[in-house]
Amino acid sequence: METYTFLRAFADSWMLLALFTFFVGVVIWVMRPGATNAYDSVSRIPFRHENAPVSDIGPASEED
């Protein structure tokens, strides 16, 4: 049971702090000023072919 107790104490203290720090770091990374252009272009991917749809080139049909 000592291993469980140690891991439980570690998860309740230092791992919680590490994961919170990682989360805050990711939020700061996403909200940085230079990221606007990159995320703006990625956010428009679903609407890229809105005016001129892609041709219907599906998987090859199997004709017997």
Descriptive overview:
By secondary structure, the chain is mainly alpha-helical. The protein has a domain at 1-28. 58% of the residues lie in helices and 0% in strands. It contains 2 helices and no strands. The chain is elongated and about 65 Å long. The termini are far apart. The model has no long low-confidence stretch (mean pLDDT 81).
Helix and strand arrangement:
Elements: H1 2-30, H2 36-43
Shape: elongated
* Amount of helix: 55-70%
- Helix-strand string: HH
- Beta-strand portion reads under 5%
User: How confident overall, as mean pLDDT?
Assistant: 81
Low-confidence stretches: none
Distance between the termini: 65 Å
Largest sheet: none
- Which structural class matches the secondary elements? mainly alpha
User: What is the number of beta strands?
Assistant: 0
Structural Rg: 24 Å
Number of helices: 2
